[in-house]
Amino acid sequence: MEKVVVIEILDRVGRIKERHRIDRFPVRIGRAYDNDIIMDDRYVSPHHIQLSLNEALDVVATDLDSENGTYHGSDKIHQLVLPQDRILSIGHSMVRFREADYCIEPTRIEAFGTTALLRTLEKPWLFVTTLLVLIGLELSDKYFGSYHNVHDGEFFLFAVYMVIGVAMWAGAWAIVSRITRHQFYMNAHLSSFILAMIVLGLFFSASEWYGYVFLASNQVEWLNYCALVVVLSALLFSHLRYCSLASNRRLSVIAVALAGSLVGVGILMQWAQNNQFSTQPQFKVYFKASSLRLARHLKPEEFFSSLVSMKEVVDKAALQTLPRSDSSDAVDD
Amino acid sequence: MRIMDPALRALLLLIALSLPLQLRGADTILTQDVFERVKPAVVQVRIIDRQSGTKSAIGSGFFVSADGYAVTNYHVVNELISQQGSYRAEIVDYRENTTAVTVVHVDVVHDIAVIKADKVPDHFLQFSATDPQQGTRIFSLGNPHDLGMTIVEGTYNGHIKNSLYEKIHFSGSINPGMSGGPGVNTLGQVIGVNVSTAGNQMSFLVPARFARQRLRQATAGTVTAVDLADVVREQLIDNQDRYIAKFFQTTLQSTALGAFQVPGRFSPLLKCWGNTPDHQQELYKVSTKQCSTDDYIYLNARHYTGHISFIHKLITDKSLGPTRFNSAFQDYFHRDFDGLASTERDVTNFQCKDRYVANGTLPLRVMFCVRGYKKYRGLYDSALRIASLGARQTGLLSSMVLTGVSFDNAVRVSRQYLEAIRWKK
Known about the structure:
With 333 residues, chain A is of the alpha+beta class. Chain A has helices at 114-121, 124-145, 152-181, 186-213, 217-241, 248-274, 300-305, 308-319, and strands at 5-10, 16-22, 27-30, 37-38, 49-53, 59-63, 70-72, 75-77, 79-82, 88-90, 93-99, 331-332. Chain A is elongated, with a radius of gyration of 33 Å. The relative contact order of chain B is 0.10.
């Protein structure tokens, strides 16, 4: 009688190691070379189990007096009618069968754009052009941010260090890709990192302008943190995409969680630093070469009458318990 | 012409020769005499850390009454008031007898403390009723560096000019450890109390009347506050009201700086400096004008208060261009303020408010920062920073620091200061 099944050998955690298409019964499984299916698991007996068909064409598994036995769940079995998909444990492996008409899940459709984007990332021209743009942006930022005489040599060195930095970062990821996916994907890692740097740099500049125009220095920091989470998530997603075969959804969750916690730690550290005692006022404000200021200009009396609320804050801080005084050094007065 | 009698000649010669000798002798005798007379009333003041039992500070002092009242500096005994319970004080007299003392009154502004010992002193000093003439020889006694009782001769040079807190200029060497010792005239009467030195024989005494006033209050029992820290606090508050009123009565006298009018030396109590270093290779130029009061009030070794300072910086572009000029301007805006040294025990962190303000037609960025005193409630330090906006080739940065003022005074004075900054007419 004809019945075609596929026997699957799984490792101890359930990953499929082998598939065998079977159209002839009985099938003997074990380590010995005279079996129909030869297993390399050292805990499996030379002749471990046999699968055969009964009159109703059900698959029947029979233990061939193996040393370590055959288990269905936690029950040791000698003979069992085995429905499709049911798993038997033998040695450190598992065995199951599926019929040839086994119903598989529908084909997954690639999310729109992702593949196209990832393919573009792999193009060499992309990282070359973006690297040039990044160097240009960073150098002009360095030039316009300084107000002393600058030397060409300094700029050249800066560009070299930047290229080395980018290469090291992308290289580290490429090595991971090589290990996990047997390919370096260097172009993709380079382009991802460079693009992320460009986007962040442009965003930081824009937020400084926003801080100046709307007199919102305090918001600049938070805008930058938000941008950092978004860009870092995208960057990590892209790197991980080339290092893993997990689903996009899973990788994005990992990337966002990782980026979020990294930035979160950064924020906490900044907060701890801001809360330390300083004899100097701590602030960060922005000036731009523009008369475009959309925040209202107060009259002096308006400004000074608005200061009253600060008194409360300071008085509250002054009420906090004084730190224990440490004995000062001996002094002649 | 008759030849002089040889005997008379010999006598005249003898007198002439002995004259300087005699004078020098009289000098030495006078100093010795003053020292002997004053010494029994002068003591060393020791501040003892209760935990370790060793001295944490030393100074000098002198008895001013038969019932054991003595005078020293506030800065010698301040730990007994600012860190109550951690320290005790004792005095050691010229016969090496040690007696415990308590602080009964203070004048934090003029750096005076009245202490009381439970014993009858061998001798006590009288206060001089009058000020000596400039150039009079006076003496200062004390125990410099714990080396033993010392007398220093010097010259009375009047009260120092343009000082917020009155002091006598004594041309003589006061050294650490002599603080709180007496400055006396040839009669051994107290003219002042040793307080500080600027080195090179430039020393300062607190005029005796401040000590006498606090002594009178202490003996009359008018020091009602249980806690001397409250007395200190009240004195600081009264003092700042007094000196702020003195400084900022009218509109501030202003001076031109580049395209701007800025507050100038609006009080003779301010000392001002200015410079414009112009280095060929620099791409911009900074002109600086700064003024400050010279005097501080000592609160503890790491915290001084009661002074005013302000600084204007006019930054002019030479070859930066607008974007880089703004980078310079932004960087200068973030530079440290002067005169804010203190510790976490004394003050809170600064709180700041930053706004665009239009003073008439001049657009400004104004940042007002304030911090509070932890031990002396109601006192604040304020730091004001003002930047001109909209000028491309040039920018003004002006900062003012007020220490130890009430919140209202900080705001009022800062406003007056800001309103004095405008376009040059």
